[in-house]
Amino acid sequence: MINRDIVMRVGRPTDNLEEITKMYVEGLGFEVIGGFDGHHNFSGRMVGHPKHHYHLEFTTHTNEKAGRAPSLENLLVFYVSNESEYKKAIIRISNSGFKKVKSFNPYWEGGAQTFEDLDGYRVVINNGESPF
């Protein structure tokens, strides 16, 4: 079993490294917590909150195209239970370059809003507690 104190990094490729980094920093209130350039033709940015147990990594490769998300169900879901914070989160993500879209899975249409980034990956902001 993996200890709950272990840090989890979720990584994915992009052809728009700087733009995607800016979108997630502005749209989700993250910070750039790390990065690298020109490491064996890879460059990357880590975004999140310092000392949290998860963060996102976006990478790009000088010789390869990442393309768009492989499906409409590639989601990051954030549960925001406080109504005031939820409204602020929706305004922030709406003003950062994410495009509001209809959710592919109708489950998210009740009490949540779905947004798509430049690469077609989606973020769901759910107004409520996590069921887990």
Can you lay out the helices and strands and say which pair or pack?
Elements: E1 8-13, H1 17-28, E2 31-39, E3 42-48, E4 54-61, E5 75-79, H2 83-94, E6 99-101, E7 112-116, E8 122-126
Keywords:
single chain; 132 residues; alpha/beta; four-stranded mixed β-sheet; 8 strands
Task: Give the CA-CA distance, first to last residue.
Answer: 18 Å
Question: How do the helices and strands follow one another from N- to C-terminus?
Answer: EHEEEEHEEE
What is the helix tally? 2
Helix % is 10-25%
Radius of gyration: 15 Å
Please tell me the overall pLDDT. Answer: 96
Inertia-based shape? globular
Number of strands: 8
**Strands of the biggest beta sheet: in what spatial order?**
1-4-3-2
**Biggest sheet descriptor:** 4 strands, mixed
As a percent range, the share of strand residues is 35-45%
Helix/strand/pairing category? alpha/beta
Unreliable spans are none
Protein architecture, described:
There is one protein chain. This protein is α/β, with parallel strands linked by helices. It contains two helices and eight strands; from the N terminus they run βαββββαβββ. The protein has helices at 17-28, 83-94; strands spanning 8-13, 31-39, 42-48, 54-61, 75-79, 99-101, 112-116, 122-126. Helix 1 (17-28) packs antiparallel against helix 2 (83-94). It is globular, with a radius of gyration of 15 Å.
